[in-house]
Specification:
Structural class: alpha/beta
Largest sheet: 8 strands, mixed
Distance between the termini: 17 Å
Shape: globular
Number of strands: 10
Strand content: 5-15%
């Protein structure tokens, strides 16, 4: 039925968000095409490229990433509001959509962001698509916040990590949610830390040789920033990026659980992903495959559910 809209809520998750590409591919294979897309953080990036017809280009970019290429996008900013300027990444990710506005898109799309200061949840449903995506994935402390309509915005994961509520507000009748961050921190009360196994974390030095990016500042500075940002290999102590990322994931996980419990989707796709670091975008191939596998496990259920609900709607109207 034309008025029975399928909504797709793509959640936050940094490099884990490449799984959304695999999910979209598997849903398309099964003949399931969302009418409404809402995305938070990397979910907004993938969702925005999908509705703009640029998913192929994004997937090619992601699959061609290497550790060295990822490091090349990290234009460090040691004197501003974010660790990374993001200009290099912006030029590549948003280059193909810079002239597109959300109003021009064939499908309804919203990117979720958070307003600095007030903490308001902001739904970006108009204006330049690239600006909306960038505001939604601007992780605090990592990327610089984005100014839109006089408001300074950053990562929407702080308020709505898996935006089911947005899809519902946009008139979706059946909502599929994709949560790529549901396995990292399940959380419990620990009364005896010695009784627990050590939590799995990504290696403290994901990118050997990354200090070369700032070689002109001297060997001592290189080593200092290397230890501070990526951690120490000798002690295994996590660096700033790992600490920030894990803290962000824990907060995001708690918020997502609370919001999904109060407003559950009709179907949930949860890819089984390995432990990953903040800058592990070079692992796109395995992450995309995990997303596709997760979606394929759910498509039969989703299709049966959609058929049943559509017939129920038809009978209700006829009666």
């Amino acid at each position: 039925m034309a008025d029975y809209k399928i909504g797709l809520a793509l959640g936050a998750g940094s490099a884990r968000g490449w799984a959304h590409i695999g999910v979209l591919r598997a849903l398309a294979e099964a003949g399931i095409f969302p009418d409404v897309i809402a995305g938070t953080s990397v979910g907004a990036l993938v969702g925005g490229c999908y509705v703009a017809g640029e998913l192929d280009a994004l997937e090619q970019f992601a699959r061609e990433l290497t550790r060295r290429k990822v490091l090349g996008f990290l234009d460090f900013n040691l004197s501003g509001t974010g660790l990374i300027h993001g200009h290099r990444l912006r030029n590549v990710l948003e280059g193909r959509v810079k002239a597109i506005t959300i109003e021009q898109l064939a499908k309804r799309f919203v990117a979720v962001a958070t307003e600095i200061g007030s903490g308001h949840e902001v739904w970006l449903s108009r204006g330049h698509l690239g600006d909306a995506m960038r505001a939604s994935y601007a992780m605090p402390g990592i990327f610089k916040p984005v100014a839109i309509d006089g408001r300074w915005l950053f990562d929407g994961a702080l308020v709505n990590p898996v935006p089911v509520s947005v899809c519902r507000a946009l008139g979706a009748s059946y909502i599929i949610a994709v949560n790529v961050n549901n396995e990292g921190s399940h959380g419990t009360v620990v009364t005896d830390i010695a009784s627990l196994p050590v939590a799995a974390l990504p290696p403290p030095s994901d990118f050997p040789g990354h200090g070369g990016i700032i070689a002109r500042n001297g060997r001592a500075v290189k080593k200092l920033i290397q230890r501070q940002l990526f951690g120490r290999e000798d002690t295994g102590a996590p660096g700033i990026s790992t600490v920030m990322f894990q803290a962000f994931n824990i907060v995001q996980d708690r918020i997502a659980r609370s919001r999904l419990a109060g407003d559950p989707p009709d179907a949930m796709i949860s890819p089984r992903l390995p432990p990953m670091g903040l800058f592990d975008f070079h692992r796109a191939e395995e992450v995309i495959d995990c997303g596709a596998d997760a979606a394929r496990r759910e498509v039969d259920h989703i299709k049966r559910d959609l058929v049943a609900r559509r017939f129920k709607t038809i009978y209700a109207r006829a009666g």
